[in-house]
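Action item from last week, closing it out:
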Amino acid sequence: MRVLLAGGGTGGHLFPAVALAQQLLADEPGSEVLFVGTERGIEARVLPELGLPLATIDIVGFVGKKPVEKLAVAPKLLRSFRQSGAILDRFRPQVVVGVGGYASGPVLLAARWRRLPLVIHEQNARPGLTNRLLGHLADRICISYPESAGHFGGRTVLTGNPVRREMTEHRPLPDGEPELLVFGGSRGARAINQAVLACLPHLELWRGRLRIVHQTGEEDLEQVKEGYRKQGWTHAEVVPFIRDMASAYARAHLVLCRAGATTIAELTACGRPSILVPYPYAAGDHQTANARSLAERGAALMLPQTELEGKRLATLISDMLSDRQRLLDMAGAAHALGQPRAAELILDQCRAVARKG
Protein backbone atom coordinates (compact mmCIF):
# COMPACT_ATOMS: atom_id res chain seq x y z
CA MET A 1 0.00 0.00 0.00
CA ARG A 2 1.22 3.52 -0.83
CA VAL A 3 0.34 5.99 1.92
CA LEU A 4 0.94 9.73 1.94
CA LEU A 5 1.05 11.27 5.43
CA ALA A 6 0.32 14.99 5.51
CA GLY A 7 0.99 17.35 8.41
CA GLY A 8 3.54 18.07 11.09
CA GLY A 9 5.07 21.26 12.38
CA THR A 10 5.26 19.92 15.94
CA GLY A 11 6.07 16.56 17.46
CA GLY A 12 2.42 16.19 18.49
CA HIS A 13 1.38 15.97 14.85
CA LEU A 14 4.49 14.30 13.46
CA PHE A 15 5.14 11.38 15.80
CA PRO A 16 1.73 9.71 15.38
CA ALA A 17 2.39 9.79 11.63
CA VAL A 18 5.82 8.25 12.20
CA ALA A 19 4.14 5.51 14.24
CA LEU A 20 1.76 4.78 11.35
CA ALA A 21 4.62 4.60 8.85
CA GLN A 22 6.66 2.29 11.08
CA GLN A 23 3.69 -0.01 11.63
CA LEU A 24 2.85 -0.17 7.92
CA LEU A 25 6.42 -0.89 6.83
CA ALA A 26 6.70 -3.61 9.50
CA ASP A 27 3.39 -5.22 8.51
CA GLU A 28 3.82 -4.85 4.74
CA PRO A 29 7.53 -4.54 3.83
CA GLY A 30 6.70 -3.77 0.19
CA SER A 31 4.68 -0.70 1.11
CA GLU A 32 5.70 2.90 0.41
CA VAL A 33 5.22 5.98 2.56
CA LEU A 34 5.78 9.66 1.89
CA PHE A 35 5.49 12.51 4.37
CA VAL A 36 4.49 16.02 3.31
CA GLY A 37 5.37 18.93 5.59
CA THR A 38 7.42 22.11 5.57
CA GLU A 39 11.11 22.95 5.77
CA ARG A 40 10.50 24.82 9.04
CA GLY A 41 8.70 22.05 10.91
CA ILE A 42 10.24 19.42 13.15
CA GLU A 43 9.70 16.90 10.34
CA ALA A 44 12.59 18.42 8.34
CA ARG A 45 14.98 17.50 11.16
CA VAL A 46 13.53 14.22 12.44
CA LEU A 47 12.47 12.32 9.30
CA PRO A 48 15.90 12.23 7.60
CA GLU A 49 17.36 10.81 10.82
CA LEU A 50 14.73 8.06 10.73
CA GLY A 51 15.31 7.34 7.06
CA LEU A 52 11.74 8.33 6.12
CA PRO A 53 11.08 10.37 2.94
CA LEU A 54 9.78 13.94 3.12
CA ALA A 55 8.42 16.28 0.46
CA THR A 56 7.89 19.91 1.45
CA ILE A 57 5.40 22.62 0.54
CA ASP A 58 5.56 26.37 1.14
CA ILE A 59 2.87 27.18 3.70
CA VAL A 60 2.71 28.93 7.08
CA GLY A 61 0.22 28.85 9.94
CA PHE A 62 -2.96 30.92 9.94
CA VAL A 63 -4.03 30.87 13.59
CA GLY A 64 -2.96 33.78 15.80
CA LYS A 65 -1.97 36.07 12.94
CA LYS A 66 -3.11 39.66 12.47
CA PRO A 67 -5.62 40.36 9.65
CA VAL A 68 -2.90 41.82 7.38
CA GLU A 69 -0.70 38.77 7.99
CA LYS A 70 -3.61 36.46 7.20
CA LEU A 71 -4.04 38.16 3.84
CA ALA A 72 -0.38 37.47 3.09
CA VAL A 73 -1.00 33.75 3.65
CA ALA A 74 -3.49 33.56 0.75
CA PRO A 75 -0.89 33.45 -2.09
CA LYS A 76 1.06 30.80 -0.17
CA LEU A 77 -2.08 28.73 0.22
CA LEU A 78 -2.65 28.70 -3.55
CA ARG A 79 1.00 27.89 -4.25
CA SER A 80 1.05 25.11 -1.65
CA PHE A 81 -2.16 23.67 -3.15
CA ARG A 82 -0.41 23.41 -6.51
CA GLN A 83 2.72 21.95 -4.92
CA SER A 84 0.60 19.39 -3.09
CA GLY A 85 -1.09 18.39 -6.31
CA ALA A 86 2.25 17.84 -8.02
CA ILE A 87 3.44 15.67 -5.12
CA LEU A 88 0.24 13.60 -5.24
CA ASP A 89 0.55 13.12 -9.00
CA ARG A 90 4.12 11.89 -8.66
CA PHE A 91 3.60 9.58 -5.69
CA ARG A 92 0.10 8.35 -6.63
CA PRO A 93 -0.93 7.27 -3.11
CA GLN A 94 -3.67 4.75 -2.52
CA VAL A 95 -4.74 6.69 0.56
CA VAL A 96 -3.89 10.10 2.03
CA VAL A 97 -3.76 10.51 5.81
CA GLY A 98 -4.00 13.97 7.37
CA VAL A 99 -2.58 14.19 10.89
CA GLY A 100 -3.30 17.87 11.56
CA GLY A 101 -1.23 21.03 11.50
CA TYR A 102 -1.31 23.75 8.87
CA ALA A 103 0.79 21.73 6.40
CA SER A 104 -1.95 19.13 6.08
CA GLY A 105 -4.59 21.57 4.79
CA PRO A 106 -3.41 22.11 1.19
CA VAL A 107 -2.60 18.40 0.81
CA LEU A 108 -6.06 17.31 1.95
CA LEU A 109 -7.72 19.81 -0.40
CA ALA A 110 -5.60 18.67 -3.34
CA ALA A 111 -6.28 15.02 -2.49
CA ARG A 112 -10.05 15.55 -2.36
CA TRP A 113 -9.88 17.46 -5.65
CA ARG A 114 -8.37 14.30 -7.16
CA ARG A 115 -10.95 12.11 -5.42
CA LEU A 116 -8.30 10.17 -3.55
CA PRO A 117 -9.32 8.14 -0.47
CA LEU A 118 -8.85 10.36 2.54
CA VAL A 119 -8.41 9.57 6.25
CA ILE A 120 -7.98 12.13 9.03
CA HIS A 121 -6.48 11.38 12.42
CA GLU A 122 -7.30 13.68 15.33
CA GLN A 123 -5.01 13.37 18.35
CA ASN A 124 -6.77 15.68 20.81
CA ALA A 125 -10.02 15.60 22.74
CA ARG A 126 -10.85 18.97 21.15
CA PRO A 127 -9.96 18.88 17.44
CA GLY A 128 -7.57 21.37 15.87
CA LEU A 129 -8.60 23.97 13.30
CA THR A 130 -7.43 22.17 10.15
CA ASN A 131 -9.20 18.92 11.03
CA ARG A 132 -12.37 20.73 12.09
CA LEU A 133 -12.51 22.67 8.83
CA LEU A 134 -11.69 19.76 6.54
CA GLY A 135 -13.22 16.85 8.42
CA HIS A 136 -16.27 16.86 6.14
CA LEU A 137 -13.99 15.96 3.20
CA ALA A 138 -12.68 12.76 4.77
CA ASP A 139 -13.90 9.25 4.09
CA ARG A 140 -13.00 8.27 7.66
CA ILE A 141 -11.99 10.20 10.78
CA CYS A 142 -9.95 8.34 13.39
CA ILE A 143 -10.21 9.87 16.87
CA SER A 144 -8.23 9.40 20.06
CA TYR A 145 -10.94 10.43 22.54
CA PRO A 146 -14.67 9.56 22.42
CA GLU A 147 -15.63 13.19 23.04
CA SER A 148 -14.09 14.20 19.69
CA ALA A 149 -16.89 12.49 17.77
CA GLY A 150 -19.37 15.31 18.34
CA HIS A 151 -17.15 17.73 16.42
CA PHE A 152 -17.31 15.72 13.20
CA GLY A 153 -20.89 14.52 12.85
CA GLY A 154 -20.26 10.93 11.81
CA ARG A 155 -17.65 8.83 9.97
CA THR A 156 -15.57 8.65 13.16
CA VAL A 157 -13.82 5.57 14.49
CA LEU A 158 -12.26 5.45 17.98
CA THR A 159 -8.70 4.20 17.44
CA GLY A 160 -6.53 5.98 20.00
CA ASN A 161 -3.35 7.90 19.31
CA PRO A 162 -0.47 5.80 17.91
CA VAL A 163 3.00 5.97 19.41
CA ARG A 164 6.33 5.03 17.86
CA ARG A 165 7.13 1.32 17.97
CA GLU A 166 9.91 1.71 20.53
CA MET A 167 7.37 3.19 22.98
CA THR A 168 5.11 0.15 22.95
CA GLU A 169 7.56 -2.04 24.89
CA HIS A 170 6.35 -1.45 28.43
CA ARG A 171 9.03 -1.48 31.12
CA PRO A 172 8.22 -1.48 34.85
CA LEU A 173 9.18 1.47 37.02
CA PRO A 174 12.94 1.19 37.63
CA ASP A 175 14.59 0.60 40.99
CA GLY A 176 17.50 2.61 42.33
CA GLU A 177 18.05 6.35 42.71
CA PRO A 178 15.13 8.41 41.35
CA GLU A 179 15.18 10.13 37.98
CA LEU A 180 12.97 13.04 36.96
CA LEU A 181 12.30 13.61 33.26
CA VAL A 182 11.36 17.19 32.34
CA PHE A 183 10.26 18.42 28.93
CA GLY A 184 7.77 20.81 27.40
CA GLY A 185 7.16 19.33 23.99
CA SER A 186 9.54 19.25 21.05
CA ARG A 187 10.28 22.99 21.35
CA GLY A 188 10.51 23.15 25.13
CA ALA A 189 8.36 25.24 27.49
CA ARG A 190 9.74 28.39 29.09
CA ALA A 191 7.26 28.34 31.99
CA ILE A 192 8.33 24.82 32.95
CA ASN A 193 12.02 25.61 32.48
CA GLN A 194 11.81 28.61 34.80
CA ALA A 195 9.70 26.81 37.39
CA VAL A 196 12.17 23.93 37.62
CA LEU A 197 15.06 26.33 38.26
CA ALA A 198 12.94 28.07 40.90
CA CYS A 199 12.15 24.79 42.63
CA LEU A 200 15.77 23.61 42.96
CA PRO A 201 16.48 25.55 46.21
CA HIS A 202 13.49 23.71 47.75
CA LEU A 203 14.87 20.32 46.70
CA GLU A 204 18.18 20.57 48.58
CA LEU A 205 17.60 17.25 50.36
CA TRP A 206 17.51 15.59 46.92
CA ARG A 207 20.64 17.21 45.53
CA GLY A 208 23.18 14.51 44.72
CA ARG A 209 20.48 11.79 44.89
CA LEU A 210 17.99 12.91 42.25
CA ARG A 211 19.05 12.77 38.62
CA ILE A 212 17.20 15.21 36.35
CA VAL A 213 17.03 14.87 32.57
CA HIS A 214 15.72 18.18 31.22
CA GLN A 215 14.80 18.95 27.60
CA THR A 216 14.71 22.74 27.33
CA GLY A 217 14.29 23.54 23.64
CA GLU A 218 16.96 25.51 21.79
CA GLU A 219 16.15 29.01 23.04
CA ASP A 220 16.44 28.35 26.78
CA LEU A 221 19.28 25.82 26.71
CA GLU A 222 22.17 27.99 27.94
CA GLN A 223 20.11 29.84 30.53
CA VAL A 224 18.83 26.60 32.07
CA LYS A 225 22.28 24.98 32.01
CA GLU A 226 23.68 28.00 33.86
CA GLY A 227 20.81 27.86 36.37
CA TYR A 228 21.61 24.27 37.30
CA ARG A 229 25.36 25.04 37.50
CA LYS A 230 24.92 28.05 39.79
CA GLN A 231 22.80 26.00 42.19
CA GLY A 232 25.26 23.12 42.30
CA TRP A 233 23.09 20.57 40.51
CA THR A 234 25.84 18.81 38.64
CA HIS A 235 23.83 15.58 38.53
CA ALA A 236 21.56 16.90 35.76
CA GLU A 237 21.51 16.35 32.01
CA VAL A 238 20.27 19.44 30.17
CA VAL A 239 19.71 19.10 26.43
CA PRO A 240 17.78 20.99 23.74
CA PHE A 241 16.05 17.90 22.34
CA ILE A 242 15.84 14.22 23.33
CA ARG A 243 15.99 11.94 20.32
CA ASP A 244 15.65 8.63 22.17
CA MET A 245 12.50 9.35 24.16
CA ALA A 246 11.76 5.65 24.71
CA SER A 247 14.95 5.27 26.76
CA ALA A 248 14.28 8.52 28.62
CA TYR A 249 10.83 7.30 29.65
CA ALA A 250 12.22 3.88 30.60
CA ARG A 251 14.71 5.41 33.07
CA ALA A 252 12.26 7.91 34.57
CA HIS A 253 10.45 7.47 37.89
CA LEU A 254 8.43 10.66 37.36
CA VAL A 255 7.76 12.94 34.37
CA LEU A 256 7.07 16.69 34.43
CA CYS A 257 5.69 17.86 31.11
CA ARG A 258 2.97 19.50 29.04
CA ALA A 259 -0.23 17.62 28.19
CA GLY A 260 -0.19 17.40 24.41
CA ALA A 261 -2.01 14.42 22.94
CA THR A 262 1.14 12.64 21.81
CA THR A 263 2.77 13.12 25.21
CA ILE A 264 -0.33 11.63 26.85
CA ALA A 265 -0.22 8.66 24.48
CA GLU A 266 3.46 8.08 25.24
CA LEU A 267 3.00 8.34 29.01
CA THR A 268 0.23 5.75 28.92
CA ALA A 269 2.07 3.44 26.54
CA CYS A 270 5.17 3.53 28.76
CA GLY A 271 3.24 3.55 32.02
CA ARG A 272 4.86 6.54 33.71
CA PRO A 273 3.44 8.74 36.50
CA SER A 274 3.46 12.42 35.66
CA ILE A 275 2.86 16.00 36.74
CA LEU A 276 1.07 17.61 33.81
CA VAL A 277 1.19 21.37 33.20
CA PRO A 278 -1.24 22.04 30.33
CA TYR A 279 -0.28 24.79 27.89
CA PRO A 280 -3.01 27.34 28.66
CA TYR A 281 -3.07 28.89 25.17
CA ALA A 282 -3.60 25.65 23.22
CA ALA A 283 -6.53 25.79 20.79
CA GLY A 284 -9.75 25.21 22.68
CA ASP A 285 -7.68 24.61 25.84
CA HIS A 286 -7.42 21.01 24.67
CA GLN A 287 -4.36 20.28 26.82
CA THR A 288 -6.37 20.86 29.97
CA ALA A 289 -8.93 18.35 28.73
CA ASN A 290 -6.12 15.89 27.97
CA ALA A 291 -4.55 16.32 31.42
CA ARG A 292 -7.85 16.05 33.24
CA SER A 293 -8.57 12.73 31.55
CA LEU A 294 -5.43 11.24 33.17
CA ALA A 295 -5.76 13.02 36.51
CA GLU A 296 -9.32 11.82 37.02
CA ARG A 297 -8.15 8.24 36.55
CA GLY A 298 -5.29 8.47 39.02
CA ALA A 299 -2.55 8.35 36.37
CA ALA A 300 -1.24 11.90 36.79
CA LEU A 301 -1.42 15.13 38.76
CA MET A 302 -2.60 18.22 36.89
CA LEU A 303 -0.89 21.49 37.82
CA PRO A 304 -2.34 24.54 36.01
CA GLN A 305 0.29 26.98 34.78
CA THR A 306 -1.29 29.72 36.91
CA GLU A 307 -0.29 27.64 39.98
CA LEU A 308 3.17 26.71 38.70
CA GLU A 309 5.73 28.17 41.14
CA GLY A 310 8.95 26.87 42.60
CA LYS A 311 7.99 25.88 46.15
CA ARG A 312 4.71 24.22 45.14
CA LEU A 313 6.40 22.28 42.35
CA ALA A 314 9.21 21.15 44.65
CA THR A 315 6.67 19.90 47.21
CA LEU A 316 4.82 17.86 44.59
CA ILE A 317 8.03 16.35 43.21
CA SER A 318 9.40 15.53 46.66
CA ASP A 319 6.14 14.04 47.95
CA MET A 320 5.76 11.81 44.90
CA LEU A 321 9.35 10.61 44.76
CA SER A 322 9.22 9.79 48.49
CA ASP A 323 6.26 7.45 48.02
CA ARG A 324 7.21 4.58 45.71
CA GLN A 325 3.86 2.83 46.14
CA ARG A 326 2.08 5.96 44.94
CA LEU A 327 4.35 6.07 41.88
CA LEU A 328 3.68 2.39 41.18
CA ASP A 329 -0.09 2.90 41.47
CA MET A 330 0.01 5.89 39.13
CA ALA A 331 2.24 4.01 36.68
CA GLY A 332 -0.24 1.14 36.62
CA ALA A 333 -3.17 3.50 36.10
CA ALA A 334 -1.35 5.21 33.24
CA HIS A 335 -0.47 1.96 31.51
CA ALA A 336 -4.06 0.74 31.79
CA LEU A 337 -5.10 3.74 29.67
CA GLY A 338 -2.60 2.96 26.89
CA GLN A 339 -3.82 2.03 23.42
CA PRO A 340 -1.04 -0.14 21.98
CA ARG A 341 -3.03 -1.13 18.86
CA ALA A 342 -3.85 2.41 17.74
CA ALA A 343 -1.55 2.33 14.69
CA GLU A 344 -2.95 -1.02 13.57
CA LEU A 345 -6.54 0.21 13.93
CA ILE A 346 -5.87 3.36 11.88
CA LEU A 347 -4.15 1.34 9.17
CA ASP A 348 -7.18 -0.97 9.06
CA GLN A 349 -9.30 2.09 8.27
CA CYS A 350 -6.78 3.18 5.63
CA ARG A 351 -6.99 -0.22 3.93
CA ALA A 352 -10.78 -0.14 4.03
CA VAL A 353 -11.09 3.27 2.34
CA ALA A 354 -8.33 2.39 -0.13
CA ARG A 355 -10.28 -0.70 -1.23
CA LYS A 356 -13.41 1.41 -1.74
CA GLY A 357 -11.40 4.03 -3.61
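Closing note: Residues 240 and 294 are 27 Å apart (CA to CA).
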